[in-house]
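tl;dr need the bound structure. longer version: we got a ligand (zinc ion) that a collaborator sent over and nobodys looked at where it sits. i said id run it. heres the input, straight from their email, havent touched it
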Amino acid sequence: MTEDPKNMTCAEFQAQLPELVGSGDDISAHPHLKSCELCRQLLSELETIAEAARQLFPVTDPPDELWTHIEQAIKIDAEKPEEALEAKSSLDSSPPDLAAEPA
Ligand SMILES: [Zn+2]
């Protein structure tokens, strides 16, 4: 049986690795890692890559993403004040119905 994690080969372990990483379990406690230096190194490399990916694509953290959008919007306004002003004034003047509407 190949189901005993202590006796699994590196290939078997590495085939499961993406699943193990994705599950969020503590992979460092895996029996194969305790006996296999090679896979410990592989795992630490994978974790470094995964960490970098999380910083590049913070999909699990919507509030941060929201703040990034807000910051970008503020930056665009600050960098192109004339363009922003122009867009604003054209918005103010284009729908005459809005101005005529009683408050
Ligand atoms: Zn191994």
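gonna send this back to them w/ a short note. DSSP finds six helices and no strands in the chain.
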